[in-house]
Every structure is written in structure tokens, then in C-alpha cells.
Amino acid sequence: MKTIKVLLGMAALSLVAACASVTVQERDMPGMTADSGARLWSMTCAHCHNLRSASEFSAQQWPIIVNHMRTHADLSKSEAETIAAYLVSLSE
Fold first, then answer.
1. What is the number of alpha carbons within 13 Å of residue 23 lying toward its C-beta?
2. Residue 7's pLDDT band (boundaries 50, 70, 90)?
3. Whether pTM exceeds 0.70
4. I need a labelling partner for 30 at 20 to 30 A (CA). Which of 2, 8, 24, 54 fits?
5. Which CATH number fits the domain 24-91, given the four candidates 2.30.29, 1.20.1530, 1.10.760, 1.10.490?
6. Where on the phi/psi map is residue 29: left (φ > 0), alpha (ψ -120 to 50), or beta?
């Protein structure tokens, strides 16, 4: 039973690591699309907490929130801007 729990734990960690990996090319691409924003948002923010509904905060609040969370999630400036733009577009 203990072996099964260990194997399941290892599989879960592998899955999280695979889902969380973002290539350097994706991270630093200028002109990321809304699709990129959605992907980055779901891959980075869901690591630590449940994803918020975009309508939960206003278009003025999202950039502030994302900028605050940028250091916690180790986001590049372009990633944070892409995520914020995506959330602003959904909240308007």
C-alpha cells in the first residue's frame, strides 16, 4: 500500500512539473496572444490557488493584482503583462 502511495505521489509531481514548464521561447515572445495569456494564467496561477473568475475584479484591479503576484510566481514582465491583458479583456 505504501509503495502505491509513493508511486502515485511521484506521478502527481511529474504531472505538475510537466504542466508547469514554460519554455524560454514562450516566456519571452513579444506579442503574445490572448491564448498565451490564458495558458500562462492557468499554468502559473493555479499552482498556488484556485483561479479567480475574471469578473471578480475590475479591469483597473487586475494589473495591480498580477503585478503583486508577479514576484510570488516568478513571472517575467512580459508574462505578467500578457496575463493582465488577458484578464482585463475578460473583465470588461
1. 4
2. very low
3. no
4. 54
5. 1.10.760
6. beta
